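Supplementary Methods S3. Complex input for the zinc ion-bound model.
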Amino acid sequence: MNFEEIKSAVNHLTKTSKCMQCKSKYTGKSVNLIATTKTEGLFEMKCPKCECSTIVTVLLSTDLKIQDHNSRTHLGISQNDVLDMKNFLGKFDGNFKRIFTKEK
Ligand SMILES: [Zn+2]
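Predicted complex, serialized as structure tokens:
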């Protein structure tokens, strides 16, 4: 994803997502980029109200429009969540993982 695509992905997320716990709307500031590939972005969304975190993947379709996103909710980050995230990232290609490691 390039910068423009990341920006529109964040836009899309803030427009279409609500906190699963308290139903608050996310703001641009509550969305953090974790990693991207050419066609996918992995974002962490933190609720401004109850601080519960959600890990979201955004897929770009072939015409580079945002297609869909899946989300998982985390109530705080525990050791298990970190392992979970590693497993989750492991499903993607090596590139994805490398970017993630480099940014850490
Ligand atoms: Zn919330």
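Helices lie at 3-16, 79-90, 94-103. The chain has one domain: 3-103.
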